[in-house]
Amino acid sequence: MIGDEIKKARARAKLSQEELAFRAGVHRTYISILERNKKSPTLDVLLRICSALGVSPSSMVKKIESS
Fold first, then answer.
1. In the chain, what's the furthest Cα-to-Cα distance?
2. How far apart are CA 38 and CA 58, in angstroms?
3. DSSP codes, 1-67
4. Residue environment code for 34-66, b if the CB has 16+ CB neighbours within 10 A, otherwise e
5. Degrees (nearest 5) of the Cα angle 61, 36, 42?
6. What is the pTM of this model?
């Protein structure tokens, strides 16, 4: 699921949920909700999160498709 990939990418980037949220312009609790797969991000938010993590959205989607 997308939340699992966000969490893995955040860990690789050595960012806290708070730092990722700040860089992506969302609230920290929203990152937590996404990482626990309680909600899915909108395309806009996914693009901002990927930008903040330094990963391409297509690579993240590919990882989800292959799992």
1. 29
2. 22
3. -HHHHHHHHHHHTT--HHHHHHHHTS-HHHHHHHHTTSS---HHHHHHHHHHHT--HHHHHHHHHH-
4. bbeeeeebeeebbebbbebbebeeeebeeeeee
5. 50
6. 0.90
Q: φ, ψ for residue 33 (rounded to 5)? A: -60, -45
Give all domains of the chain, ordered by start, each with its CATH number.
Answer: 2-66 (1.10.260.40)
Q: What is the pLDDT along the chain (67 residues), one digit of tens a residue?
A: 999 999 999 999 999 999 999 999 999 999 999 999 999 999 999 999 999 999 999 999 998 888 7
